[in-house]
Design goal:
heterodimer, A: mainly alpha, B: 4-stranded mixed β-sheet, 4-stranded antiparallel β-sheet
Chain lengths: ~90, ~375
């Protein structure tokens, strides 16, 4: 499973809506659309830090960086790239 | 260097000898004596979970829980201090502090040279933590804070407060030193419990803090800092609840073996044994939930947060039930402050309220279950509703 699918699965597992056919799209704002609850920001942060062995610094903790799948993947990409840089 | 087992053993001995005999007198004094705080600090207990690099004991979540149980059994106020100082503020600083903030604060917290408390609740704001009315505004590269915080555990003697404030609906966390101009502290009295926990109201009047006092990202006051702190707080409250329940159980059992009615010890009556059996089983279950939550926290398990809520929800109810039963077993003596059951009963009630009331946690736990245990394949066919 690639990063996109891993993160998408995690979000899907944490939806607070009960419609069967909801599928998160790459640019859906998961907070604005009410897909997740107020605790999810922290859960998502913990999840991506553990899953991808990264540490998200304070300057990257803006909620906007976690608002869509694409933005989350960009953040993970940025962090994993900076990790392999000398 | 002491092993975790040695630290926990030392905590048990310290709690039994230095705290337990005096828990009621601390309440009567309305304070934890400075000498007791000094002894607690010099043993490193105030930095129980912090990394050794900062002078902490670096206990794992489960080890920390065991230490909290011993402390909480002996004196709930000391356990409350550890909850706010170590769990809420220490852990939030460790996760979200800048290197400079961690260097500045964590060694002092670990050594107990400064005491920290968590200032979220307000006169008008409890469960709806996002709605805090304490405000901040940016000015000259720093921030100006105004507002009132209430029910601040150990706020009366803390040196630094982790304050959650808002600006047009955005919340941010600030480290506010008590010594800053505009900070005033008023001890709270007339309380059911926590009488030795230095609860206080905190008044912030045009308090100027520098940008370096912001903890975590601007705008992350609730989403990251508050949520993280409260998650750690709930874990500590869960263990503190087990502690109260265990102490209440031991109180009722000791009493039941000595108290004679109708020519025999009351522990020989079936009705009393039913209460004891129920208490033992409930406490074992609550402790198992705490250990499970602690193990999942160590593993950074995706459901650790939910498991911690479940542990806190269940254990706090167990504390209330067993403490109530302890009073029942002690009969009229249970109503007297000459016996510990009365104090444990009052302290147990608090556990169902702080760090997320039972009623706030119920829908969150239900939502966790509605996601985690949903199996589309076993949904009921629509004709079943006909």
């Amino acid at each position: 499973m690639d990063r996109y699918e891993i993160v998408k699965n995690f979000i899907q597992q944490n939806l607070i809506i009960f419609e069967e056919d909801v599928e998160i799209q790459a640019d859906d704002n998961i907070f604005a659309l009410g897909f997740v609850n107020s605790l999810f920001a922290m859960q998502l942060l913990q999840f991506i830090e553990r899953e991808f062995a990264i540490t998200v610094d304070n300057e990257d903790l803006e909620i906007a960086n976690f608002s869509t799948l694409n933005k989350i993947i960009s953040l993970i990409d940025k962090k994993t790239q900076s990790r392999v840089q000398p | 260097m002491r092993s975790a087992a040695e630290i926990i053993q030392e905590a048990e001995r310290f709690a039994y000898e230095e705290l337990r005999p005096y828990a009621s007198s601390f309440e009567e004094q309305g304070a934890i004596p400075t000498e007791v705080l000094r002894k607690l600090a010099e043993r490193g207990f105030l930095g129980a979970t912090l990394p050794s690099a900062y002078g902490g004991l670096q206990l794992t979540p489960v080890e920390y829980g065991q230490l909290l149980e011993y402390m909480g059994k002996a004196c709930n106020s000391i356990r409350e201090l550890m909850t706010v100082h170590t769990s809420l503020v220490g852990e939030a600083l460790l996760r979200f502090g800048t290197e400079a903030q961690k260097e500045q604060w964590l060694p002092k917290l670990a050594a107990g040279h400064v005491l920290a408390s968590f200032a979220l609740t307000e006169p008008n704001v409890g469960s709806d933590a996002r709605a805090v009315e304490t405000s901040y505004r940016q000015e000259d590269g720093g921030y100006i804070l105004n507002g009132t915080k209430k029910w601040i555990t150990f706020g009366g003697i803390a040196d630094v407060y982790l304050v959650i404030a808002s600006h047009h609906g955005t919340t941010t966390a600030f480290l506010v030193e008590r010594s800053l101009k505009g900070v005033s502290v008023r001890p709270m009295g007339g309380l059911l419990a926590g009488k030795a926990s230095h609860l206080a109201e905190l008044q912030l009047e045009n308090v100027r803090v520098s940008a370096g006092n912001v903890l975590g990202p601007v705008g992350g006051g609730f989403d990251y800092i508050g949520s993280t702190a409260l998650d750690h707080g709930r874990y500590a409250i869960a263990w503190g609840s087990v502690a109260i329940a265990q102490e209440a159980l031991e109180t009722m059992i000791s009493y039941a073996r000595h108290r004679k009615q109708g020519g025999k010890s009351i522990c020989e009556y079936d009705a009393i044994q039913a209460i004891i059996a129920e208490g033992i089983s409930q406490i074992h279950a609550a402790r198992s939930l705490c250990i499970q939550a602690g193990t999942m926290r160590t593993a950074h398990h995706a459901h650790a947060l939910s498991e911690t809520m479940i542990a806190k929800y269940f254990a706090s109810k167990v504390a209330m039930k067993v403490a109530t039963d302890a009073i029942q077993v002690l009969g009229a003596n249970g109503l007297s402050n000459q016996f510990p059951a009365e104090r444990l009963f009052r302290e147990a009630k608090v556990m169902e309220i702080i760090e997320g009331t039972t009623q706030v946690l119920q829908p969150m736990i239900a939502m966790h279950g509605l996601r985690a245990y949903y199996k589309p394949a076993v949904s009921i066919p629509s004709e079943s509703f006909a």
